[in-house]
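Bit of a strange request maybe. I'm writing a small parser for structure token strings and I need a real example to test against, not something I typed by hand. Could someone generate the tokens for this chain?
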Amino acid sequence: MIPITRLALGEAEAAAAASVVHSGWLMNGPRTAEFERLVAEYVGAEHAVAVSSCTTGLHLALLAAGVGPGDEVICPSFSFIATANAIRYCGAVPVFVDIDPRTYNIDPELVEAAITARTRAVLPVSQIGLPADIPAVKAVAARHGLQVVEDAAPSLGATVHGRRLGSLADLTCFSFDARKILTTGEGGMVTTDDARAAERIRLLRAHSASVSTADRDRAQRVVLETYPEVGFNHKITDIQSAIGVVQMGRVDEIVAERERLGRRYDELLAGQDGVETPYVPEGFTHVYQSYNVRLRTERTQEELMVAMLELGVATRRIFAIHTQPAYADLPSVRLPHTDEAAARTVLLPMFFGLTDDEQDQVVTALEKCL
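Reply from user aminoacidic:
Good idea to test on real output. This should exercise your parser:
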């Protein structure tokens, strides 16, 4: 079986995790600070705040952007459900808009049409490794005094006109779960140039304690913390961060290999009329957290996924959030490009360590199923 993903972890990551266990400091300590520094430097942001997941990062980033009960946040429906869930965690309402049918990312022109007096922020998703048009979304948001909180969960390392995601939006959130560009098992990071937003996220991730556990332990006197607002337990462990530090030392290699595999899929599928390969706008780079193909045959998405599995190849799909039962209470919305993409696209195996032979098997199986 060729899986949809395979972990790219080795002895260096294991040794890093073990060193934290032996250190006696397991939570949100020196390895976390180092991990934050490395990510901030890599993406070109002033600040990076490590959190327990990208989902909790989105939640805290939205709060830092001023989103609260009754507010509206504009986002795509063609995404993992965490995108909209984070909005609801704030008591706000997700307002779904359609995607560009070529990039599968939010259409900036439709963002402007969806803005109302209740809109507080825009939450574009840089989907499966391809950046959303963050400069265009920011231009729209700036005209209306809105914050841009980017869900770049699967897109660490991707660029727009030479600038990495994480340095473009007001706040950007990355994921380090098992299928992402880098993995710490679970975990996330929020990057921003806004010092006040970064500090608020640091407080909120640890119950809003006025003094961190590390600072209290280092103090040579008794320090009594206060809790000025209700916060959350969204911290990351130093075990995870130590793995992340090792992974950051390999990030250029990992991104380059994913890009090579993406180009190779393009070449192998170039003559196949049954699928449409990914589109990458000029000036954008795609880091291929997943390789997404659009079906151009009468076979349904589910039929193809079942047939691929029978041939030993795992696949996945991206669904439309507005069709899920959890969001049935929202007003109905017409999103033709989203609905078509949700029904007619399939994600193929893509991961660091995917061999050329395995990739050939994936393509052969796809051609048989088509």
